[in-house]
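To: structure subgroup
Subject: Chain for Friday's discussion

All,

I'm putting the inputs and outputs inline so they're searchable in the archive.
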Amino acid sequence: MLRALLFILPLALMIYAFIDCLNTPEEEVKHLPKPVWAIVILLFSIVGAIGWIVAGKERGPRGRAGGGRGAGGWVAPDDNPEFLKSLKDDGPGAKAEDDDDLLKDWEADLRRREEELKRRERGEENEA
């Protein structure tokens, strides 16, 4: 079991580092170009993988690496001023009017279908 672990653990670390390197945006790669990091990880396996994890990528809280609030990272909707502004632009009155129009269209369609169904039922009763 220990022999297998000694083989599987470095292999898993190398695979993780290689995939992480491939998925990392070019702006976040440090010291060497991304293709060179990929080659280093593949050629030097465990040492290359550890090198990538330690020195190859900018690490830290997401959204703060760019130097500001929400710069390149995910921001909660209540912290996002653009999202809050878009809510104010819609306004509560505009949504209510749209909802009323949709409700009226739905009711008219429902009445039309009910009338059509009644006509079919009357037609079938007359034929029988």
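Points worth raising on Friday:
Helices lie at 2-23, 34-43, 45-56, 81-90, 92-127.
Residues 76-128 form one domain.

D.
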